[in-house]
Specification:
Strand order of the largest sheet of chain A: 1-2
Largest interface: A-B, 28 and 35 residues
Largest sheet of chain A: 2 strands, antiparallel
Number of helices of chain A: 11
Low-confidence stretches of chain A: none
Bound molecules: adenosine-5'-triphosphate, magnesium ion
Strand order of the largest sheet of chain B: 6-7-8-3-9-10
Helix content of chain B: 25-40%
Distance between the termini of chain B: 36 Å
Oligomer: heterodimer
Structural class of chain A: mainly alpha
Low-confidence stretches of chain B: none
Chain lengths: 257, 305
Amino acid sequence: MTLAEQYIAFMTIVRKEIRRYLRIWTQTLLPSAITMSLYFVIFGSLIGSRIGDMGGFTYMQFVVPGLIMMAIVTNSYSNVVSSFFGSKFNNSVEELLVSPTPNYVILMGYVVGGITRGLFVAVVVTLVSLFFTRLHVHSYVIVAVTVLMTSTLFALAGFINAVYANSFDDISIIPTFVLTPLIYLGGVFYSMDLLPDFWAGVSRLNPLVYVVNAFRYGVLGVSDVSLPLAFGMIGLFTVAAFSFSMHLLNSGTRLRQ
Amino acid sequence: MIPALTIENLSKVYGDGFEALKGISLRVEQGDFFALLGPNGAGKSTTIGIICSLVAKTAGRVCVFDVDIDRDFAAAKKYIGIVPQEFNFNQFEKPLDIVVNQAGYYGMPAELARQRAEQYLRALGLWDKREVQSRMLSGGMKRRLMIARALVHEPRLLILDEPTAGVDIEMRRSMWDFLRKINAEGTTIILTTHYLEEAEALCRHIAIINHGEIVEHSSIRELLRRLNREVFILDCVEALPDSVAVAGFKVRRSDANTLEVEVEKGQFINQVFVELERQGIHISSMRNRANRLEEMFVNLVEGGA
Ligand SMILES: Nc1ncnc2c1ncn2[C@@H]1O[C@H](COP(=O)(O)OP(=O)(O)OP(=O)(O)O)[C@@H](O)[C@H]1O
Ligand SMILES: [Mg+2]
């Protein structure tokens, strides 16, 4: 395929993905908006006012970046995992597999679909958060880079989950038992300073720590980990996830018999 | 002229160790209308799956218009349109979107994609249904939707895996007409079917596959020529005497008004009529006992078992 043709195929996938989550917006966009609003009310306003400062900011200011990141992570992940698994489940993935669309275009199409949903929800959640707090953005560049890298990483992770999944159980087990704990232990709700040294060390294996802190730095200008390290780690995880996804597609694992 | 499809020593062993194809070879000429026949589980869908990349081959070579799928699968895929045995579209999408998106996967610009989608949805009688969720379509409509989807990039080789399974008689006829038309316009067609009259009505060449091996690969005409015996059933006007004989022919009285006559190659059936006329027996109608191809098919498949 020529590059122009590949671009058409890519846009076809992206458009189809966007149409999918907009069509079922009550399952895809609404839940995050509601959950995050609850978090804002409960942690930010009700409990947060008793907590006092965290890392030099009011608790509300502290959790908002983490919660926005949480929305991005879960939405980019779940968009790709459910969409790609769905197309495997009803065999419509064959439409792509029999076409000349190269594998990297298929992967990028799904990933960018996931990224757009992550961004969409991030904007919604950010708007909601404005009811509760004022946001001063420390660095728009860092915010943008973090958001893009993070949604790419977790869209890829969702893709890998979808390739291996054989049932609808398999696409909820990983988010429930792996992703959610990583998010909660990733410093969304607390500063790493609060952890004993050992657990702070263990936390450094958690990609969410880097994601949340890089973003928090972008918004508030503070971070528990150094910025170059954070971006280095996110980049490393992303490259690894991309290579592994490409390997799965090229070898036809669970896709071609 | 280069062949539309060549398969050489193709074999497939599935993950569970089952050998579905045992080194088959096949050649389909450009412009041909080709039938791939065989009983359930013979390996037809496996063969088709390999040609369109849904199944990974174990060994062998596949070339589509001289493009080796191991060298440039993307180029080979552009030549192929595939109508699978099982429905494989998203039932929540609309027929128009399904066909337009498929065109997109072949890199077709949006304007042209829409135009082609309309052309083929109309040709297959689905234009009125373009905006309904495709799960609402009847089984026969879904199958036609997959045909429209397979044609949208105007492939030179159209492969249909049991396209008329579950399609009513009238619809089958119109599907046949449609396939004949696009074949006449130059598209090479390969189809699998369990209806031998379908192969006989449509196809010029056939291959019969059984237990992962090709047991026959020739033209329909050649195959029919090789049949050297045919049984005719004669319905008689008056009740027959207890025994009827015609010199030189095997004749069996199957009931009071019915005779079965075996005609060997080189014999003339009008001798039978002359003799029966002489005996005062009048024939009101006549038919073949069974589809001749079907008999041969059963012989080949059982003989190879
Ligand atoms: N994924 C698979 N894993 C293991 N065995 C398989 C798989 N797919 C097919 N087979 C086996 O391979 C053989 C050939 O199957 P195939 O689907 O090619 O048959 P077919 O000729 O298309 O039959 P039908 O007329 O019923 O569609 C069968 O015995 C089948 O059980
Ligand atoms: Mg089959």
